[in-house]
């Protein structure tokens, strides 16, 4: 050994020798680091992979600096003759070893030469080479180091290669007529690997070759019993053939005396990804399915992985296939069916499978090839992986007929018509899984430095592993880029797929291939879908249910739950949506058609909701649904309805944008969806004109009032009043100004506005609006302590609301009557009114109304000496006000709750609530004790 040469050993305890002397590699972490590098000799190992190997559970915050320290320590230990053994690269580190310096590389070179010699019939040289390889094995690989998940797959493959070399050595030993020394070692190996039939077959033949037939038969019996008890399967065809020949006495003497060199089973599995991330539930389900089963169960197990292009089906399949390969000792077949681009003909696929099984006389006809294929797999345990299937029809002829085999299929299309198949949909990565994968590629330090940009990138990638891998590769290749740079480049959906390309990786290639195979109707529907937003929609919105189902089958769309009507809703996953946007046509007629449909449906649903006098047109449509069904539909379609307003504004449909936004006011108001209310109104306001613009301003004023933004509310109400062209519209604006004045403690000003509005409402004989105005007048009178006038106004308002069938307005009036009765010393009548109002508000899901009534009930109970009841009602009211973001209501209810707690002598808790109330009033710039 030259002075600068080292001897690295991993086939047993980790050792490094120089000039036959062991080098001290101190510390567990440096030894784990060295082992990880040696398992990947002369190859870059990403820093993230090294961190995972050293800290498999939870890396410390200082993991990367610690890693650099360990690398430096190793460099000092391994530096011989001035040569640097560990090289630093932008993404990680690599160890430099020559072929004769690492026992693993020497072992692989010796076994490869041995196989070539065996094929040439040079058995003595074969045995010599395999004995030299065996001499390198000092125990289990890296047996002195604790196991780490990052090594698991590599070590399993390494142990398998060592065991295969041992089998081949023993087979050659027997073939050379030296059966006796081989028998003891075969027995020992079989005890450690009881289901490895190749070992059993060699032992049976070796025993028979030395005249020990009874022991050979017992060996088979032990194998059969173990397989049946543990796995529920019979021994394979070759084992049964040898057993039958022994029973009949027809085992050829030459075969018994010179057991043949074991034939290696075909193993065509593509490599598993070293940085495979997440998917544990799907992986567990898949590995449980993929196993040979009892012959009584008939057909082979079939597992089908389905999902869109780039979702990681093949990566998951590879991970599962390698995990279960030892269950299929007769081989593992892999076949690319080409379904994404150009599906391969079944005849050609069958010929390829037959050649893989060693059959050279390929029949000419399709049926004959299929029969020969099924015969070749009969009574054998083989895993068949059919990747990228185009259809169930393409797969059927490639299925084994017996239960000893299992089939793994990946496809972008649903293959529900495949009998007996277990479908496993492959979903997008979770945010946590995507974050881990991106960190493994670009380094956790860069992710930690820009977590928001990383989250934006992952959202833009739609959780697809391929897209995340491409984004990571681009960042890794550009260490000077900030993550925010790539996030900005991915922001535009129309150009995003062009950014998600790196080398031969292209996130859009699979999507484009799926698009190319669409029918004309499905292609048109897909492109039109790009005109809509990301919210789920039902098939009727798109106008062609059959085409939508075709898109689902092609993996370009997915079911996103059920609509309130009972049918499914659909969505485009993020990257297919980008492709649809890029292909979207200019089609104003279709856009108007979609918007008209949304408007009709929104108005029909709103008609079933409580009357909202500030939503023009609500009462122009007759209700066609019950309140619960209308609310269920609106809840389910809310994201799509909000997107529809954006769509209308984007395409210059100003009238439709405003109509849609205003049609949704009763729903947004009732259910307190304030953010959606603001977004739709601001969007429509940007393009609206005339009275529609005035109505939108009036709605935004109401929203500002709910949010205690009083200056903005006055500004919007005043602008609406000036812009309306009719008395009725101006009256609606004055109602807003009156409500604002009452909240700000100016009941006289409020009274003036509401009386003017009442005159306009009476002129057009609008009973609902008149009931609203009279109730508001009563509230102003109540604030002025003019109780008799307030009672008269409330009584008239209640009569009008009930005549109009407006139970929602009636409940508001009952709430005010309850407060009035309590203040006039009639608590029982007050509580009766409040109970009736609360029942209505709860039934129609008016959380704001509930909060108002609960606050009034709390005040009434407390004044009547029932503090516990009062405290319970006020606590519920405070929680509701907090959920709604109503700081004005929360301040009043919190102050009352503090006073009740003080009455209960719970001073500390009372002070806490009273201090909070003071802070809220101060934030609102209003005096305490409203």
UniProtKB/TrEMBL annotation:
InterPro entries, sorted: AAA+_ATPase, AfsR-DnrI-RedD_regulator, BTAD, NB-ARC, OmpR/PhoB-type_DNA-bd, P-loop_NTPase, Sig_transdc_resp-reg_C-effctor, TPR-like_helical_dom_sf
GO BP of this protein: phosphorelay signal transduction system; regulation of DNA-templated transcription
Domain of life, per lineage: Bacteria
Keyword annotations from UniProtKB, A to Z: ATP-binding, DNA-binding, Nucleotide-binding, Transcription, Transcription regulation
Gene3D superfamilies (alphabetical): P-loop containing nucleotide triphosphate hydrolases, Tetratricopeptide repeat domain, Winged helix-like DNA-binding domain superfamily/Winged helix DNA-binding domain
A GO term for molecular function: ADP binding
Record-stated family: Belongs to the AfsR/DnrI/RedD regulatory family.
Protein name: DNA-binding SARP family transcriptional activator/energy-coupling factor transporter ATP-binding protein EcfA2
